[in-house]
Amino acid sequence: MSEDLQSLIEEWDGLGVVASHHRETGSWIFIALHDATLGRPTGGCRLRSYRSPAAGLRDAMRLAEGMTYKWAAMDFRYGGGKSVLAVPGPLEGSSRRSLFTRLGHVMNALNGGYGVGEDLGTTPEDMAFLATVTPYVAGVRDGEPVPDPGPFTAAGVHAGIAAAVAHLDCSPGLDGVSVLVQGVGDVGRPLAKLLGDSGAKVMASDIDAGRARAVARECGGTTVDRREVYETPCDVYAPCAVGATVNARTVRTLRCRIVAGSANNQLEVPEDAERLRRRGILYAPDYVVNGGGAMAFGLMERGIRDPGRLAERVRSIGRSLAEIFDEAESDGSSPVAAARKRALRALRQPAPPPPATGK
Ligand code: NAD
Question: Are residues 280 and 256 in contact, defined by beta-carbon separation less than 8 angstroms?
Fold first, then answer.
């Protein structure tokens, strides 16, 4: 083991890591298990190239820790885990399947100690294939297409936006509320539709201007040039494209009352949470408001597939956020700090231990 991998493991406060080298493709498989207090460590599988195996392991550890807080803040009984397939380059066909076969075998050896789903670089097809090797793939059932997480994530963001508006205006409903959706892809598009159906005034923006126009048409909204997003007056800015769009520069120019969207890592640095608070802009912590897809897949993995029940559970993200906003207000802190406190509280109330065998 190289010095670098060793020091990463020595310094980590998580439960442990599983590492496997897949000689055939020259890839590393890392499964990082951060915390199992609330239940089985569960999180997506990321496939990409890293500059070193240690960089892949570091990413797996960071993401697994994020999952611990994501599940806990949403009050959901899973633990924090994540896997990384650190590949030397693009991988297709039989070599890709061979790598996923190895991942499945490693997961079987853990006997349900880690539950997996899709993440950056992996596809529904990868998950369907992996499910032929191991039963611990969230949301996948024999012969059925793998569901798209985007609409579930969008439903959670919609509930989160409604909770934020209710917190500021003390009135339910989104009628007449203006929402600028930045990035109208897998999440942003269904979100725009839900918002339009709720009576909100949707403004769609995308680097693909044609896509923004199509989505605006679909939901009876308008478009905003991608270069004018941060200066455009709106009630809610919903970042649903890339991370770090909330930073020292944009916080100065934003003309919204609320930031709530699906993008991961919206804040460039943690201090941006406080910057938003000082400007009086209510921020829905990204890892709470964008948890709908993960939550739905976690529920499906437990056999809950009824769309009504799934939707109801995903809407509970709105209640979690309402509590986070209230707590932040009474503490005089940012919602990010309140979400962290809530997660730590949940982690002090462990779930009963899992059964000794099986799934
Ligand atoms: P996607 O690739 O389907 O859509 C992203 C959209 O944003 C595309 O239409 C793209 O053209 C546009 N875009 C990219 N860069 C842009 C920019 N700088 N300005 C404006 N538009 C831009 O991705 P997605 O699945 O909809 O995910 C969106 C975000 O939400 C990502 O940050 C993702 O990590 C996060 N997220 C997604 C899910 C999910 O269920 N898909 C779950 C949690 C978090």
Answer: no
- Burial call 284-304: b when 16+ CB within 10 Å, e when fewer: bbbbbbbbbbbbbbbbbbeee
Query: Would the CB of 320 count as within 6 Å of ligand 1?
Result: no
Closest by Cα among 294, 187, 318, 315 to 240: 187
Please give the average per-residue pLDDT across 277-306, as a whole number: 92
Residue 115 φ then ψ, to 5°: -110, 140
Amino acid at 263: A
In angstroms, what CA-CA distances link 33 with 4, 98, 109, 293? Answer: 19, 23, 14, 20
User: Contact at 8 Å (CB) between 191 and 154?
Assistant: yes
Angle between helix 209-218 and helix 188-197 axes, rounded to 10 deg:
30
- Helix H segments across 179-306? 188-197, 209-218, 248-253, 271-278, 286-289, 292-301
**What DSSP designation does 159 have?**
H
Whether 201 sits among the annotated catalytic residues: the reply is: no
Q: Assess contact for 321 and 164: CB atoms under 8 A.
A: yes
Q: Is 241 in the pocket of ligand 1 (CB under 6 A)?
A: yes
pLDDT per position as a tens digit, 130-163: 999 999 998 787 767 778 889 999 999 999 999 9
DSSP state of 267: B
Q: Are 86 and 34 in contact (CB under 8 A)?
A: no
d(CA 184, CA 223): 11
Centre of ligand 1 from the C-alpha of residue 155, in Å: 15
pTM of the model: 0.89
